[in-house]
Amino acid sequence: MKKTVIITAGGIGKRMGTKLPKQFLLINGKPILWLTLKRFYDYNPELEIILTLPEEWVEYWENVCVNYDPIPHRIVSGGKERYHSIKNALEVASGELIAIHDGVRPFVNDYTLNNCFKMAAEKGSAIPCLPLKESLRQKIELQSKAVDRSNFLSVQTPQVFQRELIQEAYTIEFSKDITDDASLIEKLGKKVHTCMGNEENIKITSKSDLLWAEVFNKVYED
Ligand SMILES: Nc1ccn([C@@H]2O[C@H](COP(=O)(O)OP(=O)(O)OP(=O)(O)O)[C@@H](O)[C@H]2O)c(=O)n1
Ligand SMILES: C[C@](O)(CO)[C@H](O)COP(=O)(O)O
């Protein structure tokens, strides 16, 4: 089955708060986004890689790439929200299986990737998840109440789908409650299948994540 990965890097990283969008920050001397691309290229060099970038950062990225080992990829302009960036990328994706992965998750491992691609090939969809490690409370107006954490999962990427399914899902209009691709599949009335992710597969979002990223990167390089 031909596989595509859409790597989303069309955002500007407001929560990180750096001038340079977070996907271009260096971890042990290498850009986060290049580490993510390399993760997929090392997993399977046959994968079609499509990268979404803010239009105004495309030239910057092309200049950065000259300094690192080449990884073939096609660039597509990002949109206003993650949803719009992915919609643009889906127009050119040619794989029968399509993985959608955050450009700021460079530590997804082979175990997670194998789980996702295998399950999506069999069942149509697969999203990597982990059980929660902390207690969970639900906000109720100015109060809160403890809830049973075993009823919840934390969701990662790549979220992998058979092409027809994800293309149909992206005909649904954008709304603010769409925080990932699986929520669109659900809006279609289709089942979302979950598999195990890996703990290092963090989404680099704020400054403290950069410290973890340096540690994980050192472990991956050894
Ligand atoms: N219009 C957008 C917004 C986000 N993304 C990408 O989706 C991934 C996950 O989003 P998030 O971590 O929220 O990144 P940002 O939107 O850049 O961060 P923030 O919300 O803090 O501004 C990131 O790789 C981001 O670049 C995208 O492709 N297009
Ligand atoms: C897609 C995602 O990474 C799954 O956990 C997450 O929903 C992205 O959320 P954000 O609002 O773009 O940070």
TrEMBL record:
Q: What SUPFAM superfamilies does the entry give?
A: Nucleotide-diphospho-sugar transferases
Pfam families per the UniProt record, alphabetical:
IspD
Q: Which InterPro entries match?
A: IspD, IspD/TarI, IspD/TarI_cytidylyltransf_bact, Nucleotide-diphossugar_trans
Which keywords does UniProt give here?
Answer: Isoprene biosynthesis, Nucleotidyltransferase, Transferase
GO biological process terms, semicolon-separated: isopentenyl diphosphate biosynthetic process, methylerythritol 4-phosphate pathway
Site (Transition state stabilizer) at: R15, K22
* Catalyzed reactions: 2-C-methyl-D-erythritol 4-phosphate + CTP + H(+) = 4-CDP-2-C-methyl-D-erythritol + diphosphate
Q: Where is this site: Positions MEP for the nucleophilic attack?
A: R149, K203
One MF annotation (Gene Ontology) recorded for this entry: 2-C-methyl-D-erythritol 4-phosphate cytidylyltransferase activity
What pathway, per the record?
Isoprenoid biosynthesis; isopentenyl diphosphate biosynthesis via DXP pathway; isopentenyl diphosphate from 1-deoxy-D-xylulose 5-phosphate: step 2/6
The record's listing under Gene3D superfamilies reads: Spore Coat Polysaccharide Biosynthesis Protein SpsA, Chain A
What does the record give as EC number? Answer: 2.7.7.60
Entry-linked CDD domains? CDP-ME_synthetase (cd02516)
- Similarity comment text for this entry: Belongs to the IspD/TarI cytidylyltransferase family. IspD subfamily.
Q: What is the recorded function of this protein according to its Swiss-Prot or TrEMBL entry?
A: Catalyzes the formation of 4-diphosphocytidyl-2-C-methyl-D-erythritol from CTP and 2-C-methyl-D-erythritol 4-phosphate (MEP).
Q: Which NCBIfam families match?
A: PRK00155.2-3
Record protein name field: 2-C-methyl-D-erythritol 4-phosphate cytidylyltransferase
| Organism expressing this protein natively | Lishizhenia tianjinensis
